[in-house]
Amino acid sequence: MSMRAPAPRLRRFAFAVGIVFALHPGPGAPAATAARDAEVVEPAVVAANRITSRESPARAPFTPLIARVYVNTVNKGDVAILRDADDLVLVPAAQLAQWGLTFPRANSVTVDGERYLVVSTIDGLDARFDEKQVTLELRVAAKELPGTTLDLGPQHRGEVTYPADASAFLNYGLNANGDDSFGQRRYQFATELGARWGSWLFYNTTNEQWGEATSSGFTRLLTNAQYDDRVNLRRLTLGDFFTPTFDLAASVPLGGVSFTKMYSMDPYFIQYPTAAFQTEVAFPSTVQVRVDGNLIAQRQVAPGPVDITNIAGVTGAQNVSVVIRDPFGREQVLQRPFFFATNVGLAEGLQEYSYNLGFLRRNYGVDSNDYGPLAASAFHRYAFTDQLTLGLRGQATDSLYNIGPFGTYQSPLGIVGGGVSVGGQDGHSAVAAAAAYSYTGGNFSLNLGAQYLAREYAQLSDLNAGFHARTNQYASGSVYMAALGSLTATYTASTSYDGPQSKVWNVAYTRSMLDSKGLLAINYIQSIQPRTSGSWLLSFRYFFDTLTSVAVAVGGVGGRGTQALSMERSIPQGEGIGYAFTGGHVGGGGTDGAFGRAFVQVNAAHATFGADYSRASTPEAGPGLSQLFFAGSVGYVGGSVFASRPVDDSFAVVRVAGLRDVPVYANGWLAGRTDAAGEVVATNITSYYDNFITFGTGELPLDYVFLKSTRVISPPSRSGTLVAFEVKKNRSIYGALVRLRGNVASPLEFRELTVTHGAQVTRSFTGRRGEFYLEGIEPGSYELRPDGEIDCVASITVPEAAESMLDVGTLSCSAAAH
Asked: Which of 86, 251, 530, 623 is 20 to 30 A off residue 561, Cα-Cα?
């Protein structure tokens, strides 16, 4: 019989054998000896009674073995076990517990201070010992094994940095607009200021305009201070803000205080209901999770209960399935329909709220400081189940109020939402109600909604509006087939008390072709109110790459026909050029003319600028206009002051160790090339998301080395981050070390060296003629001290401008000062 027995375990069992003999006394041995040295915890089972039987004084003792153990075919390694002549097998209880196997009612024996379970006698456990292979196979019901949880939701990366740098930026933009001869000029100058200190952000926006046919003047827009509690996903705002929008309570600007739950602070937190499965696997298995047949995850799982959570999908009804394949090729398929509502309800137990108190701001965008009465606006909703989310919302001033419940219910048949409210002004009260239904399937979607507001019903937006809304209805449906394309139809209608009315139909068809490089689109719009009219457009666009495309279009409106040809390049997020050139013709209905448009925008390192010009041969062919614009930003972070393109959301100053002309990329876009200080500004950083910052390692000089070329940052809103990459010049020095005796230089051969540079101490050695070679050298002073009986030291000074390989020649090792 072959045995795998590591030496330490065999030594332990050499001692255990003596204990085993005590458990099974030979002829003439007192029975009491076995009773003293072995403890049978539960001798109720007959087989267990055999272990300590006093009726068999001639029994052979247990045999200690090192066996390879498998639990439901999973290799658990080599384990020390005990076995007797009747094939009873004992396994250390601690080892079984380590594998997650606990059997409270199992028979046990204590040997050498260690507790063993008699696995041969445990109900629900099949134990098979193979003498030839020295293996022990244990098979247990899957539910008895430790569980595995597969969380398929978005996971936070471990290497993400959550910066809180003190930073500031000021965006500015200047626009000049006029007609096609650049007459009737109007000018606009706008600013956006963001200054962050830790969790606090000071934010301000302004606008100023002047010129012909426009009201001139300066307007302060938003001014506030925001505190982000990112851990708990909450924001406190002091100053100007807009209240949340609801069907029966439109958004209004207030100046005061707002406290809001903001799940957007963690875009990887799943706030909506997700699909989940619970099952069991008896053997190591492969688990595949599919949504509408598309594989979204594949994992290997150990035997035992399996809990699959946070299966997410795009909005709509989809079929979710889990396929489990075991080592023998057997498959188990679990499936269920699930309606994913990614932007409506909340997951069970979650809540969302916003409490706002302040003075109603009137004439926002026109007046800087026109504040009206004190007003309150609030909502709070809670998900009682994954299907049902209910809430309460309301608004009030000293003379106006509205309040009412709202909610959503999610089912495989779609989402039903609605709310009712009662409200009024100056002692009058009335009701309002809204209802909506939406369903999205694999290739079909339907959306319906209606809203009614009685004449006396009031909301805060009425204090700023010129008319009072009465009804709103909408309906939309779409059908998609991979071979035929997508067809969408939309109907919207609105009425108001003593105000405008409208009814509009829109039908659109799109189809991708030519390996997704071409897109065919047909669109028809029919306006019924305030007057009946129709327009149609047929277009085909071909994409040369992700940015550049050409489009041809024909259309008609009011008896006139239009033909146009366009060449476009999308505006990049980083440095680069975007443009659109269009030429066309309008004819019919007494009209005949040509038109054209040219638009160019340049994203330079320190600013964005461009022009937009349109002109037509006749007034009926289209309006003429001209525009020049210039925009940029100045800012600060990490000791660097910069000028750049306007900051979109947040920004990063990327520093590559003083190296010039190195390309830097932010989220896959070229942010720019480093300047003389080795810096470049990335203006397309998205707050709260993971942003990937990297530099072009292939364009570094060959004598430079770096530890990392990618950083991942997740900054707060409207903030700046300093991203510094550690890039070093890989300097090396070489020479020879000698000792002077009189006028004779003796090489210090084959010596160990201690190299000291400030507080840094490293080791090196010398060769046959005292040669030495040192790598990773920074500018500064170094001391070389040989080990042994010779007490001397040699000094080296490496200048800043040292080359990658510096020959320091022959160094004399002088007597060390004590």
From this structure: 530
